[in-house]
Amino acid sequence: MTDLLECRKEIDVIDKEILRLFEKRMKVCEDVAEYKIHTGKKVLDQKREQDKIEVLKESAHGEFNELGAQELFQQIMAISRKRQYQLLTKNGVENDTKDYEMVDALPMTGVNVVFQGVEGAYSYAAMRAYFSDAVNSYHVKTFRDAMEEVASGKADYAVLPIENSTEGIVTDIYDLLTEYQLYIVGEQGVKVEHVLLGIPETSLDEIKTVYSHPQALAQCKKYLESHPDWKIVKTENTAGAAKKVHEEMNRSQAAIASRAAGELYGLSVMAENICYNDQNVTRFIIVSAHPVYEKSAAKVSVCFELPHESGTLYNMLSHFIYNGLSMTKIESRPITGKKWEYRFFVDFEGNLEEPAVKNALRGLEAEANRMRVLGNYGQQEEQ
Ligand SMILES: O=C(O)C(=O)C[C@]1(C(=O)O)C=C[C@@H](O)C=C1
Description:
Residues 301-378 form the ACT domain. The protein contains 12 helices and 17 strands. The protein is an alpha/beta fold.
């Protein structure tokens, strides 16, 4: 029988040799980086990598080692690229974020701010919480309209809901973010406490129809399930539902919306705390046409598409891990016109000024099919 200690000793010697050769190889890669910095040649050369893998596989013995060699050298070359991205950053080679401008603080007074919905909507509450009273605010009917207002320059900022802690992401906003060349410059959380609103002095057994936005209906689904005979009707926003009940003055109608919307439209609260999650918060983003970020910005949002190949997502995420960046969120959305292909949205902690962030973005930019930095915003969470 072979001796384990002997085997381990032999492995230690081999590993030392592998490490010596790895470091030797990395030194050569640094020379390659220098060449690429001077010539502007791209770090990633897929053809060269494929050719190398083929040659190495041919030299390997047996199927198992062929696959092993492929995986090993793919990793070695991925590390080589990451070292090269670091050197490019160190040498001040510009990347995709070169148009981003850092500011001490965003202009917040005398600006035009658009939100979707009507007054009394949660977007309105988010707008009020984020901006001072010194802004000119107005509302539009749809999320797309809000995006258009910013894209055309009529509004400086739009306030849009992107995620709810109970129901998850607002998919329309994710899709619109890829359609419009706009930037996330801020975020605001709003605690969402839905109530059932009706005509004053109406009782629950008079209700036949309940109006609200699909997200609010979903957040209150347990409550609605306890009233199976009610007809549920979707509206464009919660405050709009309250407005409708107020305008139609029909005692059989009720709306699910905020207490503030009820006050605005003179409706009574018929049931409180009807959302099944009492930690129900909606996160809103502040969108601008200008790629700016505040000095204190602590969160980066990116989106990218990937080739339909095994391991591509793993490779992309390795850029965050390798650069010590903490990923706080990942989402995917189907790409229209490309069946079973997805666009990924990742949030991670950092500021565009940090070398680690620059390195990771450089890697994503070079290795994803399409990559865009959606914004750098948000404050560091208080400890
Ligand atoms: O040969 C190059 O151009 C390199 O940058 C070196 C290297 C490697 O490590 O072998 C790394 C990245 C390229 O995608 C291809 C190969």
